[in-house]
Design a protein that fits this description.
Histone, subunit A, Rossmann fold, alpha/beta, 14 helices, 6 strands
Amino acid sequence: MKGPDGMTSRGGMTSGSAPRTEPIVITGPTASGKGAVAFELARVTGAEIVSMDSMKVYRELEVATGKPSAARRAAVPYHLLDRVDPADDFSVAEYLDLLPKVFDEIRSRNRKIILVGGTALYLKGYLYGFRKGPAANWELRSRLLDEERTHGTGVLHARLTSLDPLAAKKIHPQDLRRTVRALEVLDVTGRPLSQRAPSQDWDNKDHTRPSARLFGLWWEREDLYRRIDERVERMIHEGLLEEALGLQTRQPPLSRTAAQAIGYKQAWERVSQGTTEEEVVQRIQQSTRRLAKSQLTWFRKLPLTWIPAAQFREPRVLAAEILRLSGSHC
């Protein structure tokens, strides 16, 4: 079996390769089943679960974010869920500031830690430190996004290529978020992103990479897309559209970050554009597939041990496999 980097999945690590206090990390694209596997692993080992998800951190965002059920939360301690008011923006830097405090709290109880989620930027920051830059200029971002919509896909990446070719070379032409950020840094600082010295950009130059055990759940594309489609249908049944419409008129309104939760924009467009529920479902499924593709692009750059999830019958069996690979025992 091959992972997203085209390389055969690596074998397991021995128990002597990492201190017991370091977390087991379970990640993968959306709908890969990582939450269910983490729950089974925590239930068996007595570990506590720390969320690594940029949307689950928000209160009131329930169905759209796929938070664990009340029954699961009663059975296993969860952390970094429902931490932020949805009217507030929440950054990678803020998450990485909270993370060691939560780890220390769990370790003070002599409990194991499972870090689970699909926000690759959070995981990258945890492993390597966080590259910081100027604060977000939302007015500028809005203008740039409007320009892309008006003049066509790729116009911003073409501009970045002319202004900062080194940065543009590292950013995929369809990665609009990173393209906008590179143009934003250039506009705010007057210097290309590619010319910023590491000493200017890193808030923790002495960062030591943790010796956590890193596992990714791998599905072939056809199977993953099927799981995504089924997951979206379940979320619709659980009230995703109603949740989105209820939050549309919330006061104070959702922050720009919280409003990025997949499903909300599509539900709001149904009201403004008069689309059918079937069309909304299809748009949410398409957006979720794009998210999964983006996640896998990020994960290719990280040192994950990929597990072929389809070869295991259910989450508890996958959890047992992670225990075996990590050198842990029930």
